[in-house]
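$ run holo --ligand "pyridoxal-5'-phosphate" --emit tokens
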Amino acid sequence: MNPLSLARPEILTLKPYGSARREAGLAPVLLNANESPQPRPGLCGLNRYPEPRPQALVRALAESYGLPPERVLVIRGSDEAIDLLLRAFCAAGRDAVLICPPTFGYYAVSAAIQGAARVEVPLIPPDFRLDRTGIERALREQPIKLIFLCSPNNPTGGVLSEEEILAVLEMAADRALVVLDEAYIEFAAAPSWSGRLDAFPQLAILRTLSKAHGLAGARVGALLADPRVIGLLERILAPYPLPAPSIEAALQALSDQAWLERNIAYIRKARQELAEALAAREGVLRVLPSEANFLAFAVARPKEVHEHLAAQGVLVRDLSRQPGMEGFLRVSVGRPEENAAFLAALDQALAETIAP
Ligand SMILES: Cc1ncc(COP(=O)(O)O)c(C=O)c1O
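-- output --
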């Protein structure tokens, strides 16, 4: 399958913007981009536009994901990859995306911004498994170009099985691109699907440095896909997508594997402790098993508990209005003192919201 057969024809024929830095390369006299010739003291180099496709970072990310650089697009967080995929594959008013709620909310928002229709095939409670029959039917009946799967899924924390993902890849062959969002995969026991891209040209994987790598503020992520998809998205990228300080921060982070491993080990252990502490509380009705850096847990009066926590200075996410998540709140794994503060505030909130 050639995934470009799914792309918007006008994007395939678009002449991309040629930024000045791309043309100039590393010439010693740079007078083609209307920059300030003087750097600011202490902010050396920031008078110049950054490299449009930062090669050292592409190589470092490719190495860390075990892939050749032509399968890697470096972007401003995986949010940007979601937007780029929508823009490249979904014509407004004609094409659709498929999502499996409860899931990460930005897929639907990005689709709405692009004017793409949204087809929802909810995960099946209580274990939030994929509804394969529903997905197959939707693919037959609707002009779906992108299928968003999230594993580990935000907000439930569960991973999709190999069998579930394979089934969707099979259904999608020749029909749609499967976008597998692995924002939280470093915290999971299951491996990433990045090693299997060769076998599935219809697969695109979202990765990010915002979670396990601790770089949410730098806004760096990657789309891993067939080189033809990478080439297509490069045509519609902003001229200078990544700020120079973010490129620097990402290179620094990627060179310190030991920090990453320590952080992952800490989160996994703290997640386990927090899950046990939550399950031990009488007012907590259910804790979903999580392979991410957060836990979804159910209480009888989620809105009030959420408000009580906020009044004590502890912010968690109220999921209770999302279909399938009635009663649920989501808490991120924090530092030890933050987790302790959360549990203490939760005890107060539960005491005040459980009717005597
Ligand atoms: C499932 C999922 N995908 C993507 C993102 C966006 O991540 P990034 O910071 O890389 O844009 C998030 C953020 O919370 C997320 O939960």
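-- notes --
The pocket of pyridoxal-5'-phosphate is lined by residues 77-79, 104, 150, 154, 181, 183, 208, 210, 216, 221 (CB under 6 Å).
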